[in-house]
Recover the amino acids of this structure.
């Protein structure tokens, strides 16, 4: 069950899409600041900059709130307006910025390239939302065909998860068709599932190193 107040977080988990201002936020000491405005989205278009300190949202102080609390206040239905009070280094007085929320789509693969001697590929995967497998396969094919990589670093650090089907399809990139990838088992037998690879793989022999941390789903 997801209450209406949490629906934007649910949309991020499943689709990678949400209504918001399009910026990372971070906490420094007891203050919340703009971390990285995404190019072409409301925060960046409204002139917000990395390092701007948020003091109020819609006229209410955010003192004592953490990044999760502030993130929920900034998210909302696309087309709605949110007003933030900003303190900026070099500005004598705080100033208010009005932002119209938009649908923000986060890429599952924000970066891929080569590392080391140029024969090692690197793919960063931040989530398993819709099209995650397509993004991974596209990046892998380009690295394999254009850069002629001989091994791959697959970075899943801070990947909070998403859709099981996308995870299965990503594994399918590296293993043969019709192999059992994962099984779901629980008290309700009708809910039990066996997920198999359904497609022909891209490469089953290339060495792959997977990076994870405590925040990997």
């Amino acid at each position: 069950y997801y209450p209406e107040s949490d629906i934007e977080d649910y949309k991020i988990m499943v689709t990678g899409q949400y209504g918001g201002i399009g910026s990372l936020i971070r906490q420094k000491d007891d203050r919340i600041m703009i971390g990285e405005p995404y190019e072409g989205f409301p925060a960046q278009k409204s002139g917000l900059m990395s390092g701007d300190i948020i003091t109020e949202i819609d006229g209410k102080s955010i003192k004592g709130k953490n990044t999760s609390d502030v993130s929920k206040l900034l998210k909302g239905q696309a087309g709605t307006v949110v007003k933030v009070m900003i303190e900026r280094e070099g500005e004598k007085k705080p100033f208010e910025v009005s932002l119209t929320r938009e649908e923000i789509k986060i890429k599952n693969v924000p970066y891929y390239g080569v590392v080391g001697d140029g024969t090692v590929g690197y793919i960063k995967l931040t989530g398993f939302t819709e099209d995650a497998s397509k993004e991974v396969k596209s990046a892998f094919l380009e690295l394999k065909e254009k850069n002629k990589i001989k091994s791959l670093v697959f970075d899943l650090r801070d990947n909070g998860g998403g859709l099981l089907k996308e995870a299965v399809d990503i594994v399918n990139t590296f293993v043969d068709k019709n192999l059992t990838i994962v099984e779901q088992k629980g008290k309700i037998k009708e809910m039990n599932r066996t997920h198999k690879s359904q497609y022909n793989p891209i490469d089953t022999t290339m060495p792959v190193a997977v990076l994870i941390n405590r925040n990997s789903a």
